[in-house]
């Protein structure tokens, strides 16, 4: 399968890709990559030092409490960004906001298997939570942007045909016709709404969204009562026989790398015309060769065009995971118990499956212990009342702006 594809994947890049994630590509022996040169190793080493990623095949990093977002987002930008996050005027037809899909009531996701997309379209992946997004390594299931580039994610969302389909100039003009926004932008940025300021304010708000008061973090900090005995047994399995920590390590319970679990893609993506159209248009825009024939989400290959990355998906954080069902990049697994059952069977049938996945022979009780552990990774939800949205007040001729 891979061999028959490999000659097609010729490394076309697009402007979406700000840098090529070098470390993920060279980690596996027997891959199709040519040996990287010294510059690549040096960059990989430096990147590893910055994010704390161990070299390939090293011991997993220990689990650790959630770190702080550094530097903290400025509170006045956060307050303005919160309002914009809930404001549908950031979408082309002014009917959906960021919060339509990243809804605080659904753990800042949408509770759907596959995202609904912009009205009139349907998307082909599950909506991830935006909680703790700033603390990961890559954003999106295929890892097409680094997590320290949130303003670009906001820009993509506002302008992409499948998300909010808005022309930035129209959004600016709408906000200029709202005196309260005008006043807030002046107070926060010293001037009127501009596209860059809109993106920065929303990005600051997203950066402010982190888990609070997580039982597992309290446990790690010495409160032995913070999680149940069943969850403690689950933690032991997670680090031990169930081997989850091999990929879900460190403070985010993610190695920030890309793996295939061998899942067969959700058929709805190819049976519902709108989803299939979005899928094809997306792959085509990113320059994925042979996109017409592909019936699997190519995952990280969308970014690297490297045949070895076919179907590899970013290891997601497990923080807040009990709130963000259904699971996986296409929402095909409904509950945490079913996810654990899936790993217990040794993963899915696709040949791309990571060779590390093997049947685990966990008893029913052990499986429910693992689920109990996963449930300790959710904190109290940030108190997020929907902000009031200010109205338009059209300008009289001659008024400034
Ligand atoms: C129509 C639904 C929809 C809307 C509206 C939407 N998103 Fe998303 N968002 C998604 C989906 C789906 C993904 C995952 C896309 C992928 O991986 O290909 C995503 C991914 C993200 C991510 C990356 C999370 C991660 O860990 O990978 C961030 C951050 C984000 N959205 C923020 C926003 C912001 C800010 C807005 C408003 C400007 C917004 N979203 C509006 C559906 C939506
Ligand atoms: C080989 C690496 C690897 C191992 C080992 C592994 N995972 Fe994962 N995990 C992933 C990847 C990659 C995904 C996303 C896959 C996808 O969406 O197709 C994932 C997804 C998940 C999800 C769904 C998260 C979401 O937001 O949808 C859960 C829950 C999960 N893993 C728990 C576990 C548990 C529990 C174990 C141990 C029994 C484990 N994982 C072992 C790599 C791994």
Question: Can you walk through the features of this model?
Answer:
The strands form 2 sheets. A two-stranded antiparallel sheet has the order 1-2. 35% of the residues lie in helices and 2% in strands. The protein is built from 16 helices and 4 strands. The model is unreliable at 1-41 (pLDDT under 50). It starts with a helix and ends in a 26-residue tail after the last helix. The chain has helices at 2-6, 22-25, 38-51, 75-85, 98-101, 150-159, 168-176, 179-189, 195-208, 215-220, 229-239, 268-271, 273-285, 301-304, 336-344, 364-375, and strands spanning 138-139, 145-146, 258-259, 313-314. It is an all-alpha fold and 401 residues long. It folds into 2 domains: 2-13 and 214-375, Orthogonal Bundle (Cytochrome Bc1 Complex, Chain D, domain 2); 75-208, Cytochrome Bc1 Complex, Chain D, domain 2 (Orthogonal Bundle), CATH 1.10.760.10. The structure holds heme C (HEC) (2 copies). One heme C is lined by residues 242-244, 246-248, 259, 261, 263, 313, 315-316, 318, 321, 324, 327-329, 336, 339-340, 343, 354, 356-357, 370, 374.
- Low-pLDDT windows of residues: 1-41
Straight-line N-to-C gap: 59 Å
CATH architecture of the largest domain: Orthogonal Bundle
Provide the CATH superfamily of the largest domain: Cytochrome c-like domain
Enter the CATH topology name of the largest domain.
Cytochrome Bc1 Complex, Chain D, domain 2
Number of helices: 16
Count structural domains. 2
Strand content: under 5%
- The secondary-structure class comes to mainly alpha
How many runs of DSSP E, i.e. beta strands?
Answer: 4
What ligand molecules are bound, each kind once?
heme C
The proportion of residues forming helix, as a percent range, comes to 25-40%
CATH class type of the largest domain: Mainly Alpha
**Radius of gyration, taken over Cα atoms and rounded to an integer in Å:** 22 Å
Average pLDDT metric: 88
The largest sheet is: 2 strands, antiparallel
What is the overall shape?
Answer: globular
Strand order of the largest sheet: 1-2
One letter per element, helices H and strands E, the order comes to HHHHHEEHHHHHHEHHHEHH
